[in-house]
Amino acid sequence: MIRLEGVKKTYVSREGARQVAISDATMTVNTGDLVSLVGPSGCGKTTLLKILADLHDADEGVIEIGTDDDPFTPGRDVGMVFQQSLLLKWRRVLDNVMLPAEILGLPRAEARARARHLIEMVGLAGYEDKYPYELSGGMQQRVAIARALVHDPKLVLMDEPFGALDALTREKMNLELLRIWEESGKTIVFVTHSIQEAVLLGSHCAVLTSGPARMADYFDIDLPYPRTLDMKVTEPFGEYTRRIYKLLGMA
Ligand SMILES: Nc1ncnc2c1ncn2[C@@H]1O[C@H](COP(=O)(O)OP(=O)(O)OP(=O)(O)O)[C@@H](O)[C@H]1O
């Protein structure tokens, strides 16, 4: 579904200083993959997501998303989830989830039915008429995930979606995301600073390093499904985390 080869992006400041945000990003993503992008702050993870969402152009490299038979239109085919849920506080849960469908002008009755189904899928049945302030941080992120899926996008981009949650809620949301991913069959690219989260969630993992910012490795994570939290203490899991620590110069 996605092919990147040698993708590079440099930002130029108003003073003319050049900052290489990402270089040599090369990866192939198949429909239904969940790709973790892991790396330290400033190594270009968000830049890569913005390139995939067509919010930024790359300077060099090949970017192919979709196929001739199944073309990809970024405005229609991308769903995004950010570190903050960015819910509209004056809208109830159902109306927040409906937002992308309204912006895209999708048929209303169908979109409402889909929104209700997604609210149920993210575990919030019964909360359709609540306002965001009535929900916990984890519940708000569930609403954001439902909102990212309502227009049935081909690609879901998640930028540190659980970064603001407490550790236990985050682990719970990891399992929830795996379930939602399996149920929805979506292709997901997921940015995280957490090596453990990258390994637990990813079917594939891209490791980005800084100084200079580049994609240092891209590999399959061949751990069985369903993934469970106790896998984190197994030897195969440890091998993947060691591999990433080494790439980041931390082992
Ligand atoms: N719009 C911009 N203009 C200039 N420089 C930018 C811009 N956006 C990002 N950068 C720079 O590009 C580099 C990569 O930024 P990016 O946000 O992609 O990193 P990141 O890996 O997502 O970081 P973090 O994990 O902290 O969110 C950083 O050095 C950043 O300062």
Automatic annotation (TrEMBL):
- Asked if the Swiss-Prot or TrEMBL record annotates the protein with the keyword Nucleotide-binding, the reply is yes
Q: Please provide the record's keywords in A-Z order.
A: ATP-binding, Nucleotide-binding, Transport
What is any Pfam family matched here? ABC_tran
Q: SMART domains under this entry?
A: AAA
Q: Report a single Gene Ontology molecular function.
A: ATP binding
**Domain ABC transporter residues, every copy:** 2-235
Does Nucleotide-binding appear among the keywords?
yes
Q: Which family does it belong to?
A: Belongs to the ABC transporter superfamily.
Q: What is this protein called?
A: ABC transporter ATP-binding protein
Species of provenance = Maritimibacter fusiformis
